[in-house]
Design a protein that fits this description.
The chain is built from six helices and no strands. The chain is mainly α and 168 residues long.
């Protein structure tokens, strides 16, 4: 599946870094890579995220203004949250995808702000974090079903054996 996932992740990172800034309001841009990875964890397999998340983070850093490594660190919790899907604590896979997206967004923004602040960048002020966090969570949660359902359609055995039946 990596032969599809890797180019898809690159296209999503390009769209997030180059296309969306030209069309969307700064605080209403979805974090497409993060949402794709969260949806991937639920619809496909969290094990695949251990390869895809660092790759997506590197592409975001290379295509965007952040120093290389910031997005890789900030996306790491999405991998851990993805493994929560194996526990089956939520009866709906879509709700689990939204949960992973929301929690991943909060952790992504907090880690990104902390790393940028420790690196001496003035972009990561507390006011900027407060202004971006709630809109980011809402926009990412709204975009999650758009990416989740096409990924779910490609599932066909990609899930591990802990959960045998797909749930909506």
């Amino acid at each position: 599946m990596y032969y599809v996932a890797v180019p898809l992740l690159l296209l999503v990172a390009l769209a997030q870094s180059a296309v969306l800034p030209a069309f969307a309001t700064p605080w209403l841009r979805p974090d497409l890579v993060l949402v794709l990875l969260a949806a991937w964890a639920v619809a496909r397999s969290p094990e695949e995220l251990m390869v895809l998340a660092p790759l997506g983070g590197v592409w975001l850093d290379l295509l965007g203004p952040a120093p290389v490594g910031v997005s890789v660190l900030a996306l790491a919790p999405v991998v851990l949250l993805g493994f929560l899907t194996e526990l089956g604590i939520v009866s709906s896979d879509l709700l689990m995808a939204v949960f992973v997206t929301v929690a991943g967004t909060v952790l992504f923004y907090l880690i990104q702000a902390a790393v940028l602040d420790l690196s001496g960048y003035s972009l990561a002020s507390l006011d900027a974090l407060r202004a971006a966090l709630l809109p980011g969570v809402l926009v990412n949660a709204a975009v999650t079903p758009v990416l989740y359902f096409p990924l779910r359609a490609t599932r066909s055995g990609a899930r591990s054996t802990l959960r045998s039946t797909p749930r909506f």
